[in-house]
Design brief:
Distance between the termini: 42 Å
Strand content: 15-25%
Bound molecules: iron/sulfur cluster
Number of strands: 17
Number of domains: 3
Oligomer: single chain
CATH class of the largest domain: Alpha Beta
CATH superfamily of the largest domain: NADH-ubiquinone oxidoreductase 51kDa subunit
Shape: globular
């Protein structure tokens, strides 16, 4: 029986993805990397190196200072030229480790056996796999960047792994290309995830606009009696949201305020599965990832790059921008964060983190908000079943108690409401602000 999630939208006709999924993944290795000690929104590490230190690719250079972060490793061999300090949006001091590559760095990488065939995993226990996740700095590579080992240290009984290969964000194609080129590594990684959880089955979940990737994965698992099923889902945004994936694949809901583990499910991105295979079977910690560089650039493409590669270099490698006024977004157009609006891309300071799936260049078309006309569209498309226009009013009235009563904490920050609003109201932004404020007040015991 087919299941569908509530709400959602079809933001594009799919032509945006064709920009970057027609050519193989390219390797790009910069001479200098700038590795932030904050690799995802709530994860801060402390640098273990200082200027002048010599490091080898794979050395641990950052250790978590609090829950929610994962080890950070040198992504190239070379000399630490500087430790720069910046302040983030919460005014925390964040160290950036700058490494300059050794002269003869980076001989061509050879494929591991696990990247060419399915290998025997019987020697890897649950404990060993989880420990390697932790040591190797594995995080969710689909966006949130939460340390993977923490999910697997659960005391809940896990029945299913859902491997999120939906890649429902417009423009992004890094997961699609990874599935086409690294199928064996992915399947080995999925089997390791299932083992780490003690799960009886893993579903690899793709939208039906990636039939070629599904076929290539099907061919690898065919006639092998593996606990893996490839599941095709309708192309609809946000199909890859955790709760939407559970609803679409298993026909059940994650209770409000709970994690999927509560109902026996762990969800991981397909890139995380491949990275786990690299860590466990290739002895390579998480030091690189595939990034889509697309939109208004001359040659959109996917690149395999070391963590810490500067955005400016990848935009130049893609032939430069074609927009008059650039809006540069880290991630996709629905959930990504704008890093720069302007003409000069050299003003961009960002570098690739473990969660950078894409660098998207759009033509900036900012327009002012107008009053809500009560059309109800935002409520109709909200996959969390919220009334975004009501929460918008509550936020503007500074009424956090009302936002709480309207369940703002259930927002998944998908951006569907903002996308459909004819008044161009910044609904997703304000509902997310309310959500974060409610969580903060709850932590403080104020509500
Ligand atoms: S309120 Fe949140 S979950 Fe609902 S559509 Fe807007 S961003 Fe998505
Ligand atoms: S979509 Fe925009 S205009 Fe329509 S009800 Fe929601 S906030 Fe109001």
């Amino acid at each position: 029986m087919k299941h569908f999630f509530h709400g959602g939208i079809h933001p594009t006709d799919g032509s945006d993805k064709l920009l970057s999924n027609q050519a193989p993944i390219r390797m790009y290795t910069p001479k200098t990397v700038e590795i932030s000690m904050k690799q995802s929104p709530n994860s801060v590490c402390q640098a273990l190196v200082k200027a002048g230190d010599q490091v080898l690719k794979g050395d641990i250079i950052g250790k978590p200072v609090k829950f929610g972060a994962a080890n950070i490793h040198a992504s190239i061999s070379g000399r630490v030229s500087q430790i720069k300090t910046i302040h983030d949006d919460q005014n925390r001091e964040i160290e950036i480790v700058i490494i300059e590559a050794d002269e003869n760095e980076e001989a061509a990488q050879k494929l591991g056996e696990y990247e060419e065939k399915l290998v025997d995993l019987s020697g890897y226990s649950r404990e060993v796999i989880i420990e390697k996740m932790k040591e190797g700095g594995l995080v969710g590579m689909g966006g949130a960047g939460f340390p993977t080992h923490v999910k697997y240290e659960t005391t809940e009984v896990i029945n299913y792994i859902l491997v999120n290969a939906a890649e429902c964000e417009p423009y992004l194609t890094c997961d699609h290309m990874l599935m086409l080129e690294q199928g064996h590594g992915i399947i080995n990684g999925v089997l390791l995830l299932a083992k780490a959880a003690g799960a009886m089955k893993a579903f690899i979940c793709l939208e039906d606009n990636k039939k070629d990737a599904a076929k290539s994965l099907e061919e690898i698992i065919a006639n092998k009696d593996l606990p893996i099923e490839i599941r095709m889902l309708p192309t609809k945004y946000p199909q890859g949201g955790e709760r939407q994936l559970v609803e679409s694949v298993l026909g059940t809901e994650v209770p409000a305020g709970e994690l999927p583990a509560k109902i026996g499910v762990i969800i991981n991105n397909v890139g995380t599965a491949k990275a786990l295979a690299d860590i466990v079977l290739g002895n390579k910690p998480l030091t690189s990832r595939v990034v889509t560089v697309t939109g208004k650039v001359n040659n959109p493409s996917n690149y395999l790059v070391p963590i810490g590669t500067k955005f400016t270099e990848l935009i130049k490698e893609s032939g430069g921008t074609t927009a008059k006024i650039n809006r540069i977004v880290e991630g996709g157009p629905m959930t990504g964060a704008s890093c720069l609006i302007g003409e000069e891309i050299d003003e961009l300071n960002e570098s690739v983190s473990k969660t950078t799936a894409g660098i998207l260049i759009l033509e900036d078309s900012s327009r002012d908000e107008t009053p809500c006309i009560r059309c109800g569209e935002c409520e109709r498309v909200c996959p969390a079943g919220l009334a975004p226009f009501k929460i918008d009013f509550a936020v503007l009235e500074d009424d956090i108690s009302l936002s709480n009563k309207l369940y703002a904490t259930e927002c998944i920050s998908c951006g569907c409401c903002t996308y459909v609003c004819p008044a161009r109201r910044e609904l997703a932004y304000r509902v997310t602000v309310a959500k974060n404020e409610i969580f903060k007040l709850r932590r403080e015991g104020a509500i």
